[in-house]
Amino acid sequence: MKKKIVCFIMCIVFLFLLISPGLKAQVDIDKLSIKPYLVAIVVSDAKKTINWYEQNLGFKTFKVFELPEFRGKVYFIKRGDFQIEVIENDKSLPKQEMTLPEGIEFLQGYLKLAFFTDDLDGLTKQLKYNKVYILIDITKDPLSEFRFILIEDNEGNTIQIYGT
Length: 164
Hints:
Elements: H1 2-19, E1 38-43, H2 46-57, E2 60-67, E3 72-79, E4 82-89, E5 113-117, H3 120-129, E6 133-140, E7 147-152, E8 158-163
Parallel strand pairs: 1-4, 5-8
Antiparallel strand pairs: 2-3, 3-4, 6-7, 7-8
């Protein structure tokens, strides 16, 4: 009888250990440190795109990977703690070649990349000097009350820059 009780208790302990990883206390999400780290973009010409981000937004290349099985290269560029993974793949489709069905205005997913600067006027002058395509010149965002400019990178990706 004693062996049956010990065996029963061991089975209960085993089952508890088996299911216990799902019973851990939840993290207090408000106290958890989360910050932007990286965004990835697929481009037709990585070197031109990297050059654009270096000249216009001050990013620097810090890592390059050749991926023959992926038929492309992956570059990592960085400014401060934020990175952009620039992926060049010969089997990608430029978004300019896509046509949306009638009545559809947006594709679901990421719409733009946004930055904040403490000198929006100075950066805007530099972007104009570099002949960056400007979708919306400096204006005030009615929702955030910040001023911003909306531009496109060399691949047609939308970038919004907020600033003071």
